[in-house]
Amino acid sequence: MQNKIIVLYKSEYGFTKQYAQWIAEKLQCDCVEISAVDFNKDYKTIIFGGGLYAGKINGIKTLIKNYDKIKYKKIIVFTVGVADVNDAENIKNIVSYAKKQMPEEMFSKIKLFHFRGGMDYGKMSFIHQCMMWFMKTMLSKKPENERSDSDQAVIESYGGKFDFSDKNTINDLVRYCL
């Protein structure tokens, strides 16, 4: 384990796990599903990744619950979702979601990154399919000239399969760790 870094993740459909594995490979460190980690181990840097579902970071509650054990360590959180990370409004919303879910002390200490994942409607749970149907329905009601590229992508891809994952997007996070 190099530099006493660990990458933790909570992944429903594999996109977050893939990013976690890429990061761990690049940093030559451990990569563990968050439910299997021992927060009492002597890691200097904790990297956690969770998928975004309806504005909630999957698995973040476990990190929050163990914050007292890790608050003196370097903490990095990355989210994975379908939102276009080149759209400033999307990033603003993701930061807002994260801020609402974490205690202020924790939020002010972490470094937050966002990566773009994908969707495979055939593998989605019924609840997530319903959430996406609702989102598509709401976005479809917007006038076309008011829709963002991300809005239009959700509408057009509804019911299908797509993957925006990009291994190169982890480079800023990796540099931050070194």
UniProtKB/TrEMBL annotation:
GO molecular function terms attached to this record: electron transfer activity; FMN binding; menaquinone-dependent protoporphyrinogen oxidase activity
Pfam families: Flavodoxin_5 (PF12724)
Protein name as catalogued: Flavodoxin
Record-annotated Flavodoxin domain positions: 6-143
Example of a GO biological process term: heme biosynthetic process
Taxonomic source organism: Ructibacterium gallinarum
InterPro entries: Flavodoxin_CS, Flavodoxin_dom, Flavoprotein-like_sf, Protoporphyrinogen_IX_DH
